[in-house]
């Protein structure tokens, strides 16, 4: 329920907190963490709600996500664990994931591979629940494709939000099929029905400013800054999971050589 006495940022924070509290039951959790604004915001939220948190970062050695997450995790002062993907076993793992989810969709394969490693890291740290910020990019125009959509008009943006939410929900089912091997459940508070309903009512102008808007997600960034998320994280441009971990690059390379 929207509290009309609150300003927009306060209401968004309340909705973020409610989304977490309504979906994350246990207090000991891992958080899939890249150091970007979305994962930093949910980490900060969970910390302030008194969850026992471990930040979980995966990627190839020297990858963007590993190096950037080290900086942000220190500023957040939250325990941080890292799993470095080894090239010699990556191809075998990628084939294994493809056989489980049974699709050639590149994005699905890349994300399922990433969360396979996140779940492996979670299990190594005695965690059975991992919380992610999936849904923010879909609802707040985080993807670059929204720049093209806004040129057509806000109706096209709303249609794209629905399309991307549908795809994301289906993909996260596939993700959980993969992470079940480790007994790990991946939870997405921002894909909960109540949060989606609220976020869809936020004006498009508070999410994306036009076709030249490289940052986007302005309502989320404003909240992150007010809430004490490190500025380097709150203002950072999006770098998708598969790129920040170098999974995309390595998967394409393995397909070329196979």
Task: Put the structure in a nutshell.
This protein is an alpha/beta fold and 258 residues long. It has 13 helices and five strands. The chain has a five-stranded parallel beta sheet with strand order 3-2-1-4-5, with helices on both faces.
Radius of gyration: 18 Å
The ordered string of helix (H) and strand (E) elements is HEHEHEHHEHHHEHHHHH
Counted beta strands: 5
| Beginning-to-end CA distance, first to last residue | 53 Å
> Could you please say which CATH topology applies here?
Rossmann fold
Helix content: 55-70%
Q: Could you name the CATH class? A: Alpha Beta
Strand order of the largest sheet: 3-2-1-4-5
Shape from CA axes?
globular
- Identify the CATH homologous superfamily: HUPs
Structure overview:
- It is a single chain.
- This protein is of the alpha/beta class and 258 residues long.
- The chain has a single domain (9-257), classed as Rossmann fold (3-Layer(aba) Sandwich), CATH 3.40.50.
- It is 59% helix and 9% strand.
- The protein has helices spanning 8-23, 37-48, 64-76, 87-101, 106-124, 136-139, 145-152, 154-179, 193-201, 218-227, 231-234, 241-244, 247-257, and strands at residues 28-32, 52-59, 80-84, 129-131, 185-187.
- Strands 3-2-1-4-5 form a five-stranded parallel beta sheet, with helices on both faces.
- α2 (37-48) links the parallel β1 and β2.
- α1 (8-23) crosses α10, α2 (37-48) crosses α10 (218-227) and α4 (87-101) packs across α5.
- The protein is globular, with a radius of gyration of 18 Å.
- The mean pLDDT is 92.
């Amino acid at each position: 329920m929207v509290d009309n006495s609150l300003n927009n940022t306060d209401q968004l924070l309340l909705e973020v907190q409610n989304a977490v509290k309504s979906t994350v039951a246990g207090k000991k959790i891992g958080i899939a963490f890249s150091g970007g604004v979305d994962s930093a915001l949910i980490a900060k939220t969970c910390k302030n709600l008194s969850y026992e948190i471990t930040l979980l970062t995966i990627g190839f050695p020297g990858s963007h996500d590993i190096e950037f997450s080290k900086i942000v995790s220190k500023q957040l002062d939250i325990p941080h664990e890292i799993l470095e993907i080894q090239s010699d076993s990556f191809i075998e793992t990628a084939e294994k994931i493809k056989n489980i989810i049974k699709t050639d969709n590149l994005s699905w394969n890349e994300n399922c591979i990433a969360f396979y490693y996140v779940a492996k890291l979670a299990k190594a740290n005695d965690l059975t629940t991992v919380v992610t910020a999936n849904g923010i990019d879909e609802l707040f125009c985080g993807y670059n494709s929204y720049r093209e959509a806004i040129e057509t008009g806000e109706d096209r943006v709303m249609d794209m939000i629905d399309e991307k939410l549908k795809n994301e929900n289906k993909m996260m089912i596939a993700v959980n099929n993969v992470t079940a091997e480790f007994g790990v459940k991946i939870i997405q508070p921002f894909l909960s029905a109540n949060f989606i309903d609220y976020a869809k009512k936020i004006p498009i102008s508070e999410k994306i400013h036009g076709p030249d808007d490289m940052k986007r997600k302005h309502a989320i960034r404003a909240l992150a800054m007010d809430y004490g998320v490190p500025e380097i994280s709150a203002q950072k441009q999006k770098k998708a999971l598969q790129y920040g971990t170098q999974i995309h690059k390595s998967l394409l390379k393995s397909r070329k050589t196979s």
